[in-house]
C-alpha cells in the first residue's frame, strides 16, 4: 500500500509567526518514522520567511512524469479548499472563506493578521461558501458542466456521501442534504445532524469529514482554537480532536484527542484504520514541530498541547499534565516542520 499525500498551502504555518524552514536543518531528516527533533528555540521575534505568490501563467502546467499530462481542470473558482468525487465521477469543489472571528485584541494577533496579508492572495472577486460541480462526461479532462451545486453555506470544508444522504461539514455544524445520483444542483434545505465547535474565536475553522466504511458513523476533524492554548483551555473544549458522530441520531463522542489540527481524514482500505494528517504547533523553532500523518486509535491522545511527538514536553503550557504526556502516542510518519498538509489518500 502506498501513500499519496497531497500537500497544500506550504509554509502556511508562517501565519502563526513560526516561519518556514530557514535552512538551519535538513528538512529530509524530518521525513519518516524517526524524525530528527532538535532543541527548542524560542525567540522574541521569530524568523519569518514569506512565500512569494507567483501563480500560473497562461498555458503553464506542472511538470509530471513521462507519459502523463497535467492541465487545468477548472478555473474561476473562489477559495477552493477541498475536492470530493461522487460515484458517477462528478467532482465537487468546496469553495470556502474563513468565518468572521472574534475581534483582534492582543498585539500578537494584530501582527499575525499583518503577516497574513503578505502571504495570501486575497481578492474576494466573486461568490464563495458554496460547492461547485464539475462534470466531465467523456473523460477528456474538460468538464462540460461547471455549475453551482450547493450554495449559501457557512464556511464549508468536508463532504461525505452515504447512500442518498450528502453531508457537508460547515464550520459550526454537519448538515445533511438529499441527493440522487446525477443531480447537478441541490435546492432542498439541509437538516443539521449535529453542531460542531465553532465561533466566536474559531481559530482552525476547517472541519474535515469522512464516513466509516459501513456508513453508520461520520468522523469530523476539529482543530484547536490556538497555537498553544493562548486563548485559554476553555476555548479548546472538544477541539484538537476527531469526533465520531452517529449518523442515525447525531449523537457524538471524542474519538481521539491531542491532534492540533487534523485534516484529510480517510480509512485505509485493508485494515479499516482511520488515518489523518495533522498540522502541528509553531514558535518552537524552524525545525519544530514536524507535521505528520498517522493512524488514529480509538481513545488515543496525541500530545497537544502538553507534548509533541510523544513525550517531548512543550514548556509553554501551564499547568503541565505529566499524566497525559505519559499517554501521548507517537505518530506513525513525520512530514517535516511547517509544511501544513491538508489531504491524505491511499493508492490501491
Report what the structure shows.
It is a single chain. The chain is mostly beta strands and 348 residues long. The protein has a single domain, classed as Neuraminidase, CATH 2.120.10. Helix content is 5%, strand content 31%. It has two helices and 21 strands. The strands form six sheets. Strands 2-20-17-16-15 form a five-stranded antiparallel sheet, with no helix packed on it. Strands 3-4-5-6 form a four-stranded antiparallel sheet, with no helix packed on it. A hairpin with a 3-residue loop joins strand 18 and strand 19. The chain is globular, with a radius of gyration of 20 Å.
Largest sheet: 5 strands, antiparallel
Give the total of beta strands: 21
Shape assignment: globular
CATH topology: Neuraminidase
Strand-residue fraction? 25-35%
* Topology pattern, helix = H, strand = E: EEEEHEEEEEEEEEEEEEEEHEE
> Which stretches are poorly predicted, pLDDT < 50 over at least 5 residues?
1-23
Helix content: under 10%
Q: Which strand order spans the largest sheet, edge to edge or round the barrel?
A: 2-20-17-16-15
What's the CATH architecture name?
6 Propeller
Gap between N and C termini: 6 Å
Mean pLDDT: 87
Layout: helices, strands, pairs:
Blueprint: E1 2-7, E2 31-32, E3 80-85, E4 91-95, H1 107-119, E5 130-135, E6 145-150, E7 158-162, E8 165-169, E9 173-178, E10 191-195, E11 207-211, E12 217-222, E13 241-246, E14 252-257, E15 262-267, E16 274-278, E17 290-295, E18 307-308, E19 312-313, H2 322-325, E20 333-337, E21 341-347
